[in-house]
Amino acid sequence: MRLRPTTRGWGLAFAGVAVMLVGVFLGAVDLVRIGSLALLLVVGAAIGVGLLDPGRGRHRLSIMRSTTPNPVHAGEEALVDVVITATDQAARVRLAGLRFAEQAATELSAGRPLRARVARSAQRVTVSYTVQAARRGRWPLGPLVVTRTDPFGVARTTATLGEPAEVIVWPAVVPLPTPSDVLVGEPDRVALGARTPSTDDASLRDYREGDDLRRVHWSSSARRGALMVRSDERAGMRPVSVLLDLPARTTALEWSISLAASMALAMLDAGHPVRLVGGAAPEVPTGSAVARRSPVGFVHARTGPAVRAALLDRTVDLEAPRTSEQADAELVAAAHLLETTDAGGEIVLAVLGPLGGTARAALAHVADTAQGWAVVRAEGPNPAQQREAEHTVHALHRAGWRACVVVPGEDIVACWLRLLGSVR
Asked: Any coiled-coil ranges, and where (predicted)?
């Protein structure tokens, strides 16, 4: 709590002291009394508002804050409701006459004061306002700042109520068309990705990353001590890995993450098991809910709507690499992950920048077992950077990828359609 006189209070206190000194100098008792009363008014008002501190004691006010929706996509609005409740009569006295102000990160308020609607009753005050999610990330909201002034306006107390909350902002995403006849050709449908059943439903094979657990043959798995799935599971939708090579520039970073997230959600909605790989991710405890959403594991649309959140949560904490060496190391590690998780015949959708020799070699090996599609950013407008992107595209073509050059900031749907129309 912060307690201080108002401008009026300071003026009254100085005037009281001056009148007292004049009274003492002139020997005028009445002037001394008047000055003393002025000082006592300021001191008494300060004690009064201090005793009504809403954040302390048994009669403190309770705070409940809710944000809808949370998480929210970048560029969208969220409604925040803050409910301040008095639990007893003494708390009602503390609630009466309070003024409220909410604190929010610049990424939620755009640096402007928040405009709120306040609804009051004897026991409750509800403060409602909207925030505009400007950028992907985790942004603090609160605590609530409450101010009380005495009836004479000479003393003011300011306190904070409740704990700060967090608003999670997902990247902006765009709905993308998913023409399955382009991503999965007819010859592949029998071997790798059709909805056509297998000719031998009784045969079994080892479980692979991306397989639906509902098709595990549990009795055979128990006998062999390893997960086995029916061969018709191979006739499920092909797993999709979205590979993300993060750029250093902030504008290109957010655009690249939005493109990768849009690709992942489009393939998930089409029925494919999907995972996001690439970029530095924070370490999490093994077995936790966050760990179960790690980039190593695929998520299945059939497991419920929470899988969209699982994919988007993976993007919230992504940060731009500090150096080009770090970016190359992260991309090579992601390419190695694609080779070692034994997804077998998966589709890899990549958002890349111009690549060095080590990264090109790593991605060339990925195309040995997967079908690769890549958009390559031209990192700047000058011809040299454009040539670097085109050189990377040619190298990917030679390795068996389909690839095209894109410019950060251009329409995401147009980039996607150009990629689907690319030829080797």
From this structure: none
